[in-house]
Amino acid sequence: MTTPHFVLLLLPEVTLLPYAGFTDKLRFSADDDDRSRQRYCTWHSCKLLDEPLYASSGACIDIPVLTPDLDLSQADFVVLFGGRTSESALTVAPKLLPVLQPLIHRNTHVVAIDNAVFTLAACGFLTGKRAMLHWRHQTQLKQLFPKVQVQEQGLFVTDGNITTACGGTGAIELAEYLLAHTMNPMQASKGLADMMVSERRNPLEFTPWQQQSSVTDRHVYRALILLSEGLGHSLDMELVSRRIGISRRQLDRKFLQQFQLTASAYFQKMRLERAAWLLHHSTGTLEQVANTVGYQNLGHFRSQFKRCFGHSPRAYRENQ
């Protein structure tokens, strides 16, 4: 196999988590032990605009600017790292179109992470194709580009020579997936333990939150985000309602209209559905699964799970 080369292109207001996870995964696979030499794969980073590049966190990143003399035809993968907003990704699309068009025609593998998916869509490269991005932005992508087949479940998806991804820590598995196409699987997965990745997530089935695309009420949508972020805790619905600026009674009324469940009951349903997913896709003990979704009492978790799914957690796992 040839040594794969990655060009990492950072867009304005780039989010650092996926960039850091992706590049560190390349680093671990690129050499033996922890020597960090670029032997088994190579990469370099560049920015699109000839101006200071600030990350979404405010950090200034000093990397070279993409210039016409940079021969992208030698790259096996060109990876676009999106910024904090879709608006900034859409703004740079006209500048990126003449850069990406020859690569697409040459079948270079182009990768877009999170909001960089908007850039590819605006360039017309995702029309009729499947695409994945962070769940917070899926509804907006559907509205702006209805001909893109947005996948609501997974970490990333490949359609032809284009891969789109949700970002976050999922960029680690994304890098491993791309490397596995060009080197042996053991080298591609090297370093995961060092990166504290103990559970392997299925990139096609992972669902951090069951996106309710039919939700149009802004208060319900904001509440769902808070609930999804608090699955590992016992949330106070009074606090949730205050955070989104309505009363607890209004919150329950809106949830009953949308889901036929109170906010508290719906949160319970979310926790148990997450537990069911973990039982099927992880190797954690029942106690670890229960703790992950906020149940400190294993007996209470068992009874609630059986009430919801008709089986005990152990039987549910064995039947999957």
UniProtKB/TrEMBL annotation:
Show the SMART domains listed in the entry: HTH_ARAC
Source domain of life is Bacteria
Quote the Pfam families the UniProt record gives: DJ-1_PfpI (PF01965), HTH_18 (PF12833)
Among its keywords, does the record have Transmembrane helix? no
GO MF annotation, one:
sequence-specific DNA binding
Which keywords does this chain's UniProt record carry? DNA-binding, Transcription, Transcription regulation
- Indicate the transmembrane segments per the record: none
Where the record annotates domain HTH araC/xylS-type, the positions are: 221-319
Q: Which Gene3D superfamilies match?
A: 3.40.50.880, Homeodomain-like
Keyword Coiled coil attributed: no
Name the UniProt record assigns to this protein: Helix-turn-helix domain-containing protein
Source organism (scientific name): Maribrevibacterium harenarium
